[in-house]
Model the fold of this input.
Amino acid sequence: MTPGRSAVDQFDEWFERFAGFGPHAWQRRLALAEACEDRLIRVPTGLGKTVGTVGAWAWNRLQRADDAWPRRLVFCLPMRVLVEQTEAEVRRWLEGAGLLWDGEASHKSKVGVHVLMGGAERVDWHLYPEHCAVLIGTQDMLLSRALNRGYASARAGPWSSLSFTTTPYGCSTRCS
Done:
């Protein structure tokens, strides 16, 4: 944070670089909330629920280095096509902000993006619990991994996450 400039101005400027456009008022309120809390985000399709939640998380966890925000951002989606679309968008935003981990160089201050979906290439997302990551998967795969019973995988470690679930009625976030 830059002394002398309001948090709103700093976030707006950062978000515009991150997303390519300025934030909606609800996106700003989410990112500038005093704490990461459970909430229901009910806005129409196309008004930026995905970029708003990724932006709020990245602003707080990465830009502000606020450890009160969880290391994991989890998108639990009902269809493979939504998983693939969300992965592409999240990678684009993080890469544009210089925050995307390439899987090889230092993981410090970078975010891994991992897809957990049947038929997707197996990744060892669980090997770096101390680093930030975005996990994007289908309901069945994420549930099986959360229960430590992932398809064709060894027992996984505990999760610490901010989960984001989309329903026909809106979306919800849950901090844990």
